[in-house]
Amino acid sequence: MSKVNLDEIDHQILDILIDNTRIPFTDISKRLVISAGTVHVRVKKMEESGIIKGSSLNLDYVKLGYSFIAYVGIFLEKTNTTSEVLKALNDIPFITVAHITTGKFNIFCKVRARDTHHAKDIIFMIDDIVGVSRTETMISMEESINDKKRLMHHIFNEL
Fold it and tell me: Which helix (H) or strand (E) segment is 151 a member of?
């Protein structure tokens, strides 16, 4: 896979888009003192190269009633059941992230729930999936770092 070359303008555009994916290109162009067409062409180039993969919306789950976060490590009976277990996990809407991992767990998930009772029900749903031998759960006390920019800036400085 070849590396895509980005210049300082591309970095600045990405920096602005990470803060607000819905910002109009005209606003970006005013901040960077370049034309809106230039912003459009550069964003399109980064989309086509796969650097930008869509855009996302950040929800305040606490305001939506889902303030409880748990991480669930899943042990499988056999690793050849991984894809079937992932399909079943995908059917549980409260599982927001799932990773196939090495080490202690076969799969590691992030779960959002309303409270501890709801989390227990979700964990029981996971335990009931055919192929899951057991789970281990960790409760998130607080999300302390959720920063999309630090790594991006580090990568840009390496280029």
Answer: helix 149-158
CATH 3.30.70.920 is right for the domain spanning 68-139: yes
Give the CATH number of domain 8-57: 1.10.10.10
pLDDT digits (tens, 9 = 90+) for 36-53: 999 999 999 999 999 999
H or E stretch covering 69: strand 68-76
Tokens of residue 79, six digits: 């690793």
Measured CA to CA, the distance from residue 107 to residue 101 in angstroms comes to 5
State the CB neighbour count (10 A cutoff) for residue 24: 11
DSSP per-residue string spanning 26-41: HHHHHHHTS-HHHHHH
Give the model confidence (pLDDT) of 68-113 as tens digits.
Answer: 999 999 999 999 999 999 999 999 999 999 999 999 999 999 999 9
Overall pTM surpassing 0.70 (yes/no): yes
Name the residue with tokens 């869509």: 54
* Stretch(es) of the chain classified as CATH 1.10.10.10: 8-57
In the chain, alpha helices (H): 8-19, 25-32, 36-48, 82-90, 116-127, 149-158
